[in-house]
Request: fold
Amino acid sequence: MVKKGEIVYGKITNILGYGAFVSVGDYDGLIHISEFSDNFVRDIHDFVNVGQQVKLKVIEVDEKNKRLRLSYKTLNKNRGVKGEIPKYRIGFATLKKALPLFIQEQLEGEKQ
Reply:
């Protein structure tokens, strides 16, 4: 029996525009497109492919119909600043000087 909040492994069985279907033992699961990333998801194939084994978190269980709502992003997040962290000596004076340059580099990177 699968419980809400549990971590499970499942096999991707089908991918549609709105989500991916997963087989988890006796259960059929769905990872809705919104559960792949906090950011815009252009294509689910950027995250998973049919036949792939994935680690997921159970959001909701429908025991009667043996169905699961699953989350990919909860366990597979890429967080933080997009870009490289500058290689500077750590310290208050150095950081104070380096921060404006770092911010400018990140803004220029977003424009590309």
